Every structure is written in C-alpha cells, then in structure tokens.
User: Which sequence fits this backbone?
C-alpha cells in the first residue's frame, strides 16, 4: 500500500491534478470501477474505455518495436517490485528464486525475521525456506508474443 497507494497520494497532494490516468486494462474494468468509487472519481480509464487488454497493449508495443521491460521477458506476469510480498504463489516465488536469488534470499530473511509466511503451497502457508524448489502452483499469467523482439535473448 505504501509503495503504490501512498506514493500516488503524496504525488497528488503535491501536484494539483484534475484527472488521473492509470493503466487499468479491459480485464480490470471492475477494479477500475471500484477505484473510481473508493479512491478518485476523476479516474480516466482509457484502456478500459477502448477495450484494450494487457495482450493488446503488448501487441501494440511489439508492432512499434518497443521492447517490454525485462521483468516480463523473465516470465513474470506484472512489472511490480521483484519479490512482491503480496504474491503467494509457489510458482512466482520459485521464479524469483531462479531469476533473482539475491532478492529471494533477502525476502526469506525478512519474512523469517518478522514471522511472515509469504507463500501458500498445498493449502498451507509456508516460509520461503520451506518452499520446495520444484513446487508449482497455478501457472503465472502468460502472454503470447509475436515473433520478433520477444524471441531474441536480450536479457
């Protein structure tokens, strides 16, 4: 909440904006509607209004030769903070362990220190050090990309 909501609210307090444009996509219409009701009724949900999905946005970027952030090319479904403590998926955390071992170790230490079991596996909350390296949950959202910039190894 502090990294997203509070940061945005601080910016809004310093910058007198009449409207707010956020990247809610067509799949997130309910989320955008809830945001308008509970946060700011001056939200302009442009992508929702145009009916653009996340995949549509990726396709537009690819068509215009704009490279996606590395985090997507690593297989993550969102460009959030790496090692997001809101994530509970064993698939997510094992991908963090594989691609960003230093972040995984830092979250492991932090979560043990404060007693937070970040991952849910087989219906049970676990500390990261208890998560089997081969544990899988639901597949992460996978967006298909056209051949071109996404087929090249540019990491």
Assistant:
């Amino acid at each position: 909440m502090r990294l997203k909501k509070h940061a945005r609210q601080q910016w809004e307090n310093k910058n007198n904006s009449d409207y707010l444009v956020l990247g809610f996509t067509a799949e997130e219409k309910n989320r955008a509607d809830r945001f308008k009701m509970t946060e700011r009724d001056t939200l302009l949900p442009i992508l929702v209004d145009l009916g653009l999905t996340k995949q549509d946005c990726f396709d537009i970027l690819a068509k215009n030769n704009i490279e996606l952030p590395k985090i997507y090319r690593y297989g993550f479904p969102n460009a959030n903070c790496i090692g997001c403590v809101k994530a509970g998926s064993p698939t997510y955390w094992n991908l963090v362990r594989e691609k960003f071992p230093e972040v995984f170790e830092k979250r492991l230490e932090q979560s043990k220190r404060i007693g937070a079991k970040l991952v849910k596996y087989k219906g049970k909350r676990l500390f990261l050090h208890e998560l089997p390296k081969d544990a899988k949950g639901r597949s992460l959202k996978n967006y298909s990309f056209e051949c071109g910039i996404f087929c090249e190894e540019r990491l």
In short: Residues 1-52 form one domain. The CA atoms of residues 59 and 127 lie 37 Å apart.
